């Protein structure tokens, strides 16, 4: 069958222009009727590893070889670094591995200037290779690059990528004839322009590291080279760069501009010894595959520490942490498999492990313990029964108790994202605090940290409402975040207080709408339903008699001005309650939110218990007519104050205005429960208490008994 390369399954980015246009022609030796994928060398298995972020050493074939060698107890074969160096007269000066030579301080420099004008470059090596020939890469190199997701270009560019995959050290090749006989590493100027290899012009900031030829930026350090010095078919001489740049700066630049294979490796940290190895490996391959002549000498800037780390550890340390009984011989065997040298004495437990620089993730003895457990085999560690005494935890006990209380009240818990959009972040607030924006949001819908938890519950209500689910009773325990607005406080902004005004609060939020099942009956949710839930929680936490609901029309414009209140404990605002404003939602949706950090900071005494009375209690109804402006809770305070010890409870059960009630007045009816623990109350005692309550209401509010 006649087909294109794309029809054989090859990714479009690997296709040449000829292959993109149509049919691919195979060589004459291609067997008729054979499998073209096998003939082209693409019938191979690719193993894709998901690595943890601390193992940057495994972003290379060499690093993976050490890992596999440790698992299978095999030694790693060294890669070939040998090449011939030539002096200015074209005479061969040596034919050996030059790594140790170029590490010496008196190593010969090349005939161009190297300047490092930033502390964000700790190591920079440069070598020159002349008389290269640009051709297509050998088949085996192209296949390995494609299997690794890198598009082959030509033999020189492919060698830089190949060495990066092999050693983990990113390289960059410059066309030496396009340079100004100088390489400078510096920070970019604000709004400086640079056209990268992909042909796009980038606008840089003073936080980006650039490579310059002394006049202009020619590369974005650690991310991508510049278009002006790229390798082309006419390139004859190249400068090889092998360097280490500050990983934090590279990460910020790559997140802002472009993520690349190189930046991924720079971000995780590099082995300075591999930097030297990589440049020599590149020289070897340019000599072998591009017929290049490697000039004797190197330009070098090196402020790195290339000494191996020495970490002391004992057999007891390892076994105590792992819960094992591994003998010293097996532990030393693990270090040998990993390629770590060690020093120890026969009869002593102390082991001094010499960790090579390629393992930058190991710095403390706990890291070594992890390696022992990993290589020894977690499956080989026997399970043991816990022998420590187990006691009830206290870390989140209050949160769990609140959660259980909400369950018992018939509400369902939800967990939501803390990220919302800017408009949602300010819902159910009085706009006196600033939202905290994240630096690199994935989407605009998740770009800001929420200022309260109620916003998230309201989104869930909308989700359920759109799916015809009308009965919703939810709660969530979660955090909210904000930034104090210093401008409104007339405080001068400084770098110090700008960082200090970030805050987070732990909150309980509740949303109820539709029908609510009380356990005995179903009722429509109203203000008093969610108020009752709030009272149950506050009573449960020990704040009985210390809280009140204060009318305040300035809580937030997102709540109904006539059906909302501040929740106050000890005359301090700890939350809000109310109906969602009808301009936002036509349905009767009620919300409540408590600032638990603020609430739980108020101390409560030990819970007191008393026996139920063995004697029957008496309930009396009391209806009074008062001004419309008088609040029911103010009346209840007077009832409680005048009821004395015989008053057990009082509840409002009716509000009436209309026929028989004067204009500007309202009728409030209370159920008053009286009783004593040691006797049944007499009629005289009951009448005396009720008269005292009535007189108190009349004296303070001008209340009249309703006939």
Summary, kept brief:
By secondary structure, this protein is α+β, with helices and mostly antiparallel strands. Strands 18, 20, 23, 24, 27, 28, 29 and 30 form an eight-stranded mixed β-sheet that branches. Strands 1, 2, 4, 5, 12, 13 and 14 form a seven-stranded mixed β-sheet that branches. A five-stranded mixed β-sheet has the order 3-6-9-10-11.
Overview of this structure, please?
This protein has 707 residues and is of the alpha+beta class. The protein is built from 20 helices and 34 strands. Strand 10 (217-220) and strand 11 (224-225) form a beta hairpin. Helix 6 (155-167) runs antiparallel to helix 9. The longest helix is centred in the C-terminal third of the chain and has 19 residues, at 683-701. The protein is elongated, with a radius of gyration of 39 Å.
């Amino acid at each position: 069958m006649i087909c294109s390369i794309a029809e054989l399954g090859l990714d479009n980015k690997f296709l040449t222009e000829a292959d993109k246009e149509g049919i691919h022609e195979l060589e004459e030796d291609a067997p008729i009727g054979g499998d073209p994928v096998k003939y082209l060398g693409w019938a191979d298995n690719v193993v894709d590893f998901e690595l943890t972020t601390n193992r940057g050493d495994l972003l290379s074939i060499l690093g993976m070889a050490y890992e596999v060698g440790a698992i299978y107890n095999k030694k790693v074969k060294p890669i070939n670094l040998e090449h011939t160096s030539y002096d200015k007269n074209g005479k061969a000066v040596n034919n050996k591995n030059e790594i140790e030579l170029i590490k010496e301080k008196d190593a010969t420099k090349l005939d161009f200037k190297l300047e490092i004008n930033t502390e964000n470059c700790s190591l920079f090596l440069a070598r020159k290779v002349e008389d290269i020939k640009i051709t297509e890469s050998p088949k085996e190199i192209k296949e390995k690059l494609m299997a690794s997701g890198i598009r082959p270009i030509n033999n020189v560019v492919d060698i830089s990528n190949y060495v990066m995959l092999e050693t983990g050290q990113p390289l960059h090749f410059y066309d030496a004839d396009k340079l100004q006989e100088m390489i400078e590493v510096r920070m970019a100027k604000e709004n400086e322009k640079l056209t990268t290899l992909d042909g796009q012009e980038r606008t840089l900031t003073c936080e980006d590291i650039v490579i310059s030829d002394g006049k202009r930026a020619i590369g974005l350090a650690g991310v991508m080279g510049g278009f002006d010095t790229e390798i082309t078919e006419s390139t004859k001489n190249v400068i090889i760069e092998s360097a280490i740049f500050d990983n934090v700066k590279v990460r910020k630049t790559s997140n802002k501009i472009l993520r690349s294979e190189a930046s991924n490796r720079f971000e995780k940290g590099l082995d300075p010894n591999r930097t030297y190895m990589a440049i020599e490996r590149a020289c070897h391959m340019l000599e072998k595959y591009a017929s290049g002549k490697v000039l004797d000498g190197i330009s070098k800037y090196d402020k790195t520490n290339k000494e191996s780390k020495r970490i002391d550890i004992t057999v007891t340390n390892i076994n105590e942490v792992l819960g094992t009984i591994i003998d010293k011989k097996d532990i030393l065997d693990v270090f040998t498999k990993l390629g770590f040298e060690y020093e120890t004495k026969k009869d002593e437990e102390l082991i001094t492990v010499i960790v090579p620089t390629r393992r930058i993730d190991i710095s403390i003895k706990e890291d070594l313990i992890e390696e022992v457990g990993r290589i020894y085999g977690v499956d080989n560690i026997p399970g043991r029964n816990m022998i420590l005494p187990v006691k009830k935890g206290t870390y989140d006990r209050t949160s769990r108790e609140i959660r259980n209380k909400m369950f018992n009240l018939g509400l369902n818990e939800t967990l939501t994202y803390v990220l919302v959009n800017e408009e949602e972040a300010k819902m159910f607030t009085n706009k006196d605090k600033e939202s905290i924006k994240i630096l690199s949001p994935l989407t605009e819908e998740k770009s800001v940290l929420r200022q309260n938890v109620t916003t998230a519950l309201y989104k869930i209500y909308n989700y359920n409402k759109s799916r015809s689910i009308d009965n919703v009773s939810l709660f969530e325990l979660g955090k909210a975040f904000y930034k104090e607005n210093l401008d409104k406080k007339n405080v001068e902004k400084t770098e110090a207080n700008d960082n200090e005004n970030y805050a987070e609060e732990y909150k309980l939020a509740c949303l109820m709408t539709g029908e609510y099942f009380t356990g005995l009956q179903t009722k429509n949710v109203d203000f008093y339903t969610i108020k009752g839930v709030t009272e149950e929680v506050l009573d449960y936490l020990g704040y009985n008699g210390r809280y009140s609901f204060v009318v305040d029309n300035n809580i937030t414009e997102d709540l109904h001005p006539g059906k909302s209140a501040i929740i106050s404990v000890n005359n301090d605002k700890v939350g809000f309650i109310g109906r969602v404003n009808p301009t936002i939602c036509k349905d009767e949706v009620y919300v409540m939110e408590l600032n638990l950090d603020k609430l739980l900071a108020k101390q409560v005494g030990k819970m007191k218990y008393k026996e139920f009375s063995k004697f029957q209690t008496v309930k009396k109804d009391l209806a009074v007519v008062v001004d419309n402006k008088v609040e029911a809770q103010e009346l209840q305070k007077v009832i409680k104050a005048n009821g004395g010890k015989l008053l057990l409870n009082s509840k409002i059960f009716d509000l009436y205005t209309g026929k028989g009630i004067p204009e500007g007045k309202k009728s409030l009816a209370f159920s008053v429960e009286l009783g004593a623990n040691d006797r049944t109350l007499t009629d005289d005692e009951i009448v005396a208490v009720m008269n005292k309550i009535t007189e108190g209401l009349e004296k303070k509010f001008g209340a009249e008994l309703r006939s």
